[in-house]
Write a structure and sequence with these properties.
By secondary structure, this protein is of the alpha/beta class. The protein has 12 helices and 10 strands. α9 (about 260-270) packs across α10 and α9 (about 260-270) crosses α11.
């Protein structure tokens, strides 16, 4: 065990370089592990409980990813800069407008209580930007004064449904406590279904743990569940009504259009200091028309992830061409680089 010299709390050996409670740097002797949550903004009233859970779970706990609020960012602008997502942007704007109007009404009616039930279901296929939007939402809600610190804590539901009986409940509580003042984002939430077995029912443990916490900390905690449409509907239908009723909002993330995917490809290329010849642009546009037309019969289609994989494949072909032709412009992708065979496209899950 390690002892933090600043707050005096006993910590597990794998707590990392910084104290997970106060953020103080630990001595080399006290920091022998690499699995740290980094410095935090815990609420004082839950610090001791977080320390106890960290100590109890120790090396068994799955990784949490915590994104802190960055005051240098302009989160609304970041949302608007995302390709497509028209419905997503409209729904978020409508929610903020409603909240701000209620704040004005509260000025005239001091007895009016304003709650922030933004617990939300994100539905959509892989690669539609659900995780990215969750991080941006946390920043926007902080900017609008709806939550206090704007952090976004991310966890994968499938990673916490193993371990000893009671493990999933404790980890879910830890994740929620670490998210106070911000957003807890749980991806692949449908993985909480059908988990009953010899080690209890970890999915039910998670849901039974989060349900009262979403009520008890309703002004401090926002929970976002994400996953496929059909599976998320099944999850809400099969869980207890009290849990499902906590989610007042649903946001659907549409598949990217062929035009959107072309824009995403060009954005990735630009960030990597590439330009495309006019012939390459034309061929790529035609290719995305084919990819889009086959997306509903292609189980491996993953929207922006498919675009990223396609870019990496085309970049590799361009590099091979450039290596053969030393006079080639190393910053330009040409039509030849996009001449992928049907077999190559199938291998990367594009068609």
């Amino acid at each position: 065990m390690a002892i933090c010299s600043q707050c005096g709390v006993s910590l597990p050996e794998n707590c990392g370089t910084y104290c997970p409670l106060c953020g103080a740097e630990l001595s080399q002797e006290a920091s022998v592990g690499a699995n740290s949550y980094g410095d935090t903004d815990y609420f004082p009233e839950v610090r001791e409980e977080i320390a106890a859970l960290l100590s109890e779970l120790d090396k068994m706990r799955p990784a949490l990813t915590k994104h802190k609020y960055n005051p240098a960012k302009r989160y609304w602008d970041e949302l608007e800069s995302l390709t497509g997502m028209t419905r997503v942007k409209e729904q978020l704007r409508d929610f903020i407008i409603d909240f701000n109007v209620q704040k004005v009404r509260q000025f005239n009616h001091p007895d009016l209580l304003i709650s922030c039930p933004f617990n939300c279901i994100f539905k959509g296929r892989p690669g539609t930007g659900k995780t990215t939007v969750a991080r941006i939402v946390a920043g926007i809600l902080k900017e609008e004064g709806i939550i206090s610190n704007g952090c976004c804590v991310e966890m994968d539901a499938s990673s916490i449904t193993s371990g000893w009986i009671g493990f999933s409940a404790k980890f879910a509580r830890l994740a929620a406590l670490e998210s106070l003042g911000g957003v807890l984002f749980i991806d692949e939430a449908y993985s909480l279904l059908n988990t009953e077995g010899s080690k209890g029912n970890p999915g039910k443990e998670v849901i039974d743990t989060l349900t009262p916490m979403m009520e008890n900390y309703r002004d401090k905690l926002i929970v976002i569940f994400a996953g496929y449409d059909k599976e998320m509907n099944e999850l809400l239908e099969r869980t207890n009504p009290g849990f499902a009723s906590r989610f007042k909002n649903e946001i659907h993330f549409d598949d990217y259009s062929a035009k959107d995917m072309l824009q995403i490809f060009n954005d990735i290329a630009t960030k990597n200091h590439y330009t495309l010849s006019s012939q390459a642009q034309g061929r790529l546009a035609a290719l995305f028309d084919v990819i889009y037309s086959r997306k509903d019969i292609n189980p491996r289609f993953a929207n922006a992830r498919t675009v990223r994989t396609l870019f990496e494949t085309i970049r590799s072909k361009a590099s091979a061409r450039m290596a053969r032709d030393r006079s080639a412009n190393y910053d330009v992708i040409v039509q030849e680089d996009i001449a992928l065979s049907a077999e190559e496209l199938k291998q990367i899950g594009a068609i």
